[in-house]
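Long-time lurker. I teach an intro course on protein structure, and each term I like to show students one example going from raw sequence to a predicted 3D structure in token notation. This year I'd like something fresh instead of my usual example. Would anyone be willing to generate the tokens for the chain below so I can use it in lecture? Attribution to the forum is fine with me.
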Amino acid sequence: MTSIIKKAGLVALLAAVPGIAAAEGVNGANTAWILTATALVLFMTLPGLSLFYAGLVRSKNVLSVLMQCFAIACVASLLWLVFGYSLSFAEGNSWIGDLSKAFLYGINADTLSGDIPEPLFFIFQMTFAIITPALIVGAFAERMKFSSMLLFSAAWLIFVYTPVCHWVWGGGWLQQMGLLDFAGGTVVHVTAGVGALVAAMVIGNRRGYPRTPMPPHNMTMTVTGAGMLWVGWFGFNGGSALAASGDAAMAMLVTHISAAAGSLAWMTIEWIRYGKPSVLGIVTGMVAGLGTITPASGFVGPGGALIIGLSAGVICFYATQWIKRKLMIDDSLDVFPVHGVGGILGTLFAGIFASTELGVFSGWGYADGIETMGQQVWVQFVGVAATFIYTAVVSYILLKLVGWLTSGIRVDEEDEVQGLDIVLHEEVGYKL
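-- Reply from a regular --
Happy to contribute to a lecture. Here you go:
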């Protein structure tokens, strides 16, 4: 009798604690992992991407790049709260979400998204919304006005990122078609890469390009940022499983394999062509391998990851040469040839290597609904093409509009020569 009374008292006590009943559906292990993954993805931008980019520009522009990445993180976070998350993940229609979740309306600490708290899903997705426009910074580095950069990044997040995110992950038409994009091949890398290419073409080449050498000013900083990107990418891809599971573990494994393969492939090509392997080459190959495996990371095994990584290192290397030396487009930090081309390649490869037709190189469970490889590759192609065209058109319109609002998106020639650090921020990166 006494034990029954004690048990009844315990039940009553637990019922009296706010949130206990609602929290019954929360998976503690999954929640802990996504909390960690969220921090890792933010770590990719601040400080990973910031340092990676900052080391690649000239010393007179190092602070401007750091400032741009930091400011985008702040602006994107607030826009995501106001309506970005809602437009991406609220029900809406096949093209865009509605505003039912603006300002996280109706969502509290006990609200669930699957078996994790929805506020956690919100902030995890926020980190993706932060890094995507930040990637574009590399295309117009050293020559865009800070005010123009802020306006363009904010508008681009609203009118490019959120619709494509809804199409692919929020129940939109590409998700309904069955597009495979585990962690952002189309949503992140194709949109950022295409946006970067358009921005580089609209703003024009840096003064003196390509005649004047413009080598990175601090490769130590770049390698440090690259290492942070590699580590943070485990949260990017592994966290996209939204569970502490074998799926997350496999995503992390194939991410690492592809990064290593991409690094060695790029380094080897440079070694053969130029006689020496470069540090810039090996870290750029790493980023190419990471970006290319991203859409496929939840659908392929290690064999597929090895081929994807090697292909990324080779194809993205030659894409860089083609963009800069053949087309003479000054995509300053190679955003399109690395992220854009990598995202396209990886999205198409996801349709190939997820197929069980390949046996040992096949996927491992996610792609059960695929009837034939050809059918899935067609869906992947449609997703890439739609994302490419939509992003290119809207990015061009936004750049022209921002240029009109800010009396030109580019600093004048004298300011460009002096450097954006002192001209736009009245500060210098180094006092030696």
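Some talking points for your students: The chain has one domain: 26-425. The chain has 15 helices and two strands.
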